[in-house]
Design goal:
- The complex is a heterodimer of chains A (356) and B (364).
- Chain A is an alpha+beta fold and 356 residues long.
- Among the domains of chain A are: 65 residues, MutS, DNA mismatch repair protein, domain I, CATH 3.40.1170; 58 residues, Orthogonal Bundle (DNA polymerase, domain 1), CATH 1.10.150.20; 100 residues, Dna Ligase, domain 1 (2-Layer Sandwich), CATH 3.30.1490.
- Helices cover 38% and strands 23% of the residues of chain A.
- In chain A, strands 5-6-1-7-8 form a 5-stranded mixed sheet. Chain A has a 4-stranded antiparallel sheet with strand order 9-12-10-11, covered by helices on one side.
- The model of chain A has no long low-confidence stretch (mean pLDDT 90).
- Helices cover 18% and strands 46% of the residues of chain B.
- In chain B, α1 packs antiparallel against α2, α3 packs across α4 and α5 runs antiparallel to α6.
- Classes of the chains: A alpha+beta (356), B alpha+beta (364).
- Chains A and B meet through α13 of A and loops of B.
Amino acid sequence: MTKQRKIIHVDMDAFFASVEQRDQPAYQGKPLIVGGQPNSRGVVAACSYEARKFGIHSAMPCSRAYRLCPQAIFVPPRFEAYRAVSNQIREIFWQYASQVEPLSLDEAYLDVTYTADYEGSATLIAQAIKRDILAKTQLHASAGVSYNKFLAKIASDLDKPNGLYVIRPEQGLHFVADFPIGKFHGVGPATEAKMQKLGIKTGADLRKKTLLELVERFGKSGQYYYNIARAIDERPVRSKRVRKSLGKETTFAEDILSTELLTEQLNALAEPILNMLAEQAIRAKTMTVKVKYADFRQVTRAQSVDAALDKRAVKQWIPLLLNRTEAGRKPIRLVGLSFSGLEVANQQRVHPEFDF
Amino acid sequence: MKINRSVLLKPLINVTGIVERRHTLPILSNLLLEANNNKIQLTATDLEMQISLSIDSHTQEALTTTISAKKFLDICRALPEDSEIDLVSKDSRMTVKAGKSRFNLQTLPAADYPVMTKVNGDSVLIQLPQIELKRLLKQVEFAMAQQDIRYYLNGLLLEVDGNKLNLVGTDGHRLSFTSATLNQSYEKNNVILPRKTVIELIKLLEDNDEEVTIEIAAGQVNFAFGEMRLISKVIDGKFPDYNRVIPTAHSNTFTVNRMAILTAMQRASILSNEKYRGIRMVLSHNNIKLISTNTEQEEAEEELEITYAQESLDIGFNVTYLIDVLNNTQQENINFSFADANSSCLITLPEDDDYKYVVMPMRI
């Protein structure tokens, strides 16, 4: 049997909002919303705990947040500041963990199985990490400790803010059994609805289903659901996550009908992504245009090509993909562009072409 | 209107082939059915091309409607052989009756069917046996590009020049050229046939000596053979100058039995890199080696004896491009010629002077 793993999930508390409150003492103790302006169409990127008391949560439209709490302070995000903090905390993670897998600026999985500090006690290591983060950034983090990623993530959420929660190997199964299905990582609202329909309300219900039933119903994810119902999650903590796609999207201040304007917007989105791909010598074979209509209905249109997509190809495909949506006939509030089918370009193996 | 299943089925399969499963207009999933004067005409279109076919019948009854191509075909297929099928169109429905079976299908008005019509104006008429056109198409079809942003490569060049009919397909990495002599001379003229048209044509052409008439008109090409009429739009674009790509002659050359090198390549390709499909061709005195390696560092080596006394050469290729040409030619022997490891390779057939295949090497 392999060594029991020790995984920590660290998650900063109300990250963007806490950074703002730290840097602007006037914001402290007040409902603070980082994101769009109240009269804009932006959404809440993060909010302070004071704001959460009013029922505000991230991803909520700012207009709605404003109605819930008109006295809230709305500030635009300062990503450079968050990135700076993010780098500080990642440095701390690397002091303790052999593998660090960041999930976003403020969240990461740490594998501390082979860490010798504190006689290998993951709980003490998590405490030390929290302490170091506070000392260095004056910000609080919550940590979850367990024997796999799935449980560690659940644990970090259980004692927020400034929390530390440990799920021991013998507790794993019991924990999962009582857990409401919608709270499982990887079970979104759509899957939750499907599960509810099948009578699956908790981890215990999920555990009653056979592997075959789950795979038939949920495809590839069925295996994952089968495992998590048993508190099994063998995904390793990966330092370098292999990107599956790279994309950007933009919501307009006003709905756009003109396809020329939409094409322009998409071209503008393409530029930085293509540069990023080029810098990392990654080739993309599929591009996807996403369109959200004024009525919030959204469609995606994708195109795969044999050769890698370059600037010229992307520029030519954008109007063609847009053409396959109702752009020009229906007002559109958001467009997005993403690239997938990524592979590292191998300079030595490029197949030369005819010089027509 | 009555018709025997055996008479209807094959024509039905032939026209239904071009009906797209995903389409923009509901009526495009339908088939246009027109009957009068002892003839039944079936028409299908995807707006880019149209196939119509007429069948002799023994009925004077007139009937004009459109019905789901897929459902109608599925029904006819499933009926017992030699069933007498009775079609009755009434209001917005068509009833299909055969023996004790009865199907009631929805219809859409025939007047709404987007029929493609032949364009007027100057056109060029070419005639050649069906079997010959089919052979020519098959020699170049596999080299066409698929979904290339250079949309003009997603098709096949059809060119008349003097008494020559030239066909060219290329995806930028390899190019396949073939030519036939016509019994008449023409002014130089060319069109790009869309990929789908080419693939459909190959399916529909019969292996017999009956003539097919190709009519090249403005923005359109029509093919008429047997009872079949195919109208296709052409790709509006400029096909690259293939003459610049085909090398005239290389000094390093050998001839080899096609099947011998094909089977050797197929075996060697098993251990070639799945993505790049690279294979090394190492030429030395009277010997050729085919070597492949994959990402797991597994290795395959094949050796063939040839007659070769020129320069030694070590050159890489995408093996798929080579297997393609070996698979799509029928001749017993095949000729390879090279300039050096960085230049394109010319493949010809000692028994067919009109065929040329060019493939770019790849760095391995």
